[in-house]
Amino acid sequence: MESCFDFAQCRKNGFKVYVYPQQKGEKIAESYQNVLAAIEGSRFYTSDPGQACLFVLSLDTLDRDQLSPQYVHNLRSKVQSLHLWNNGRNHLIFNLYSGTWPDYTEDVGFDIGQAMLAKASISTENFRPNFDVSIPLFSKDHPRTGGEKGFLRFNTIPPLRKYMLVFKGKRYLTGIGSDTRNALYHVHNGEDVVLLTTCKHGKDWQKHKDSRCDRDNTEYEK
User: Fold this and answer.
1) Residues contacting 45, CB < 8 A, separation 6+
2) How far is CA 139 from CA 62, 142, 168, 180, in A?
3) Model-level pTM?
4) How far apart (Å, rounded) are the C-alpha atoms in residues 167 and 136?
5) Sign of CA pseudo-dihedral 169, 96, 54, 4
6) In this predicted model, what pLDDT tens digit does every residue of 109-155 receive, in sequence order?
7) Hey, how many other C-beta atoms are within 10 angstroms of the C-beta on 120?
8) Using an 8 Å Cβ cutoff, are 62 and 108 in contact?
9) How far apart are CA 76 and CA 60, in angstroms?
10) Collapsed DSSP state (helix, strand, coil) of residue 46
11) How does residue 77 score in pLDDT terms, banded at 50, 70 and 90?
12) What are phi and psi of 216, to 5 degrees?
């Protein structure tokens, strides 16, 4: 993957991230607006593409389910028309959903070229180690920040925090993601690793109910 990323600008200017200007008439869902705002509000942001080490599209790529109202049409041609695209080199693409019901796939609907993919629920077969980024599937209602602006200057090692890992979500008793989520209880210890799941997903969840569902639902709803 070394040939897919040009480190020259990073060595020259440091780790700077450029966000493409929003194109007139293009819709951007609130979730993706929050992603872009977080980047633009960080110390790594630059408004000068000539200083950038990493590029992020303003075109909304989070939801690539064709049945979704947030789905952006003609994304392939829109991306290819960007003069800085360069076949995706030094670009990072964010994606939460891809494919559509009932046959969900990991196809985002356009050629990402040499771009890195920051994606939720990415399979081990398609994940490219040391290149792609696995991200959590977050709700559109999830707050963008935890309150007041932080003033982190240095990373603390070991980190000063109570929890090492926290997850709360639906189990998906069958289908894509079910094997992983149904096994989360193995690493849950209720102390620094807290993984809470509910079986209540979809209309037919009770038909697929397993022996852990009642216990998991109770813990989830506390």
Assistant:
1) 16, 17, 18, 19, 39
2) 12, 5, 11, 19
3) 0.72
4) 9
5) positive
6) 999 999 999 999 888 899 999 999 999 888 777 665 555 555 555 54
7) 16
8) no
9) 12
10) coil
11) very high
12) -65, -40
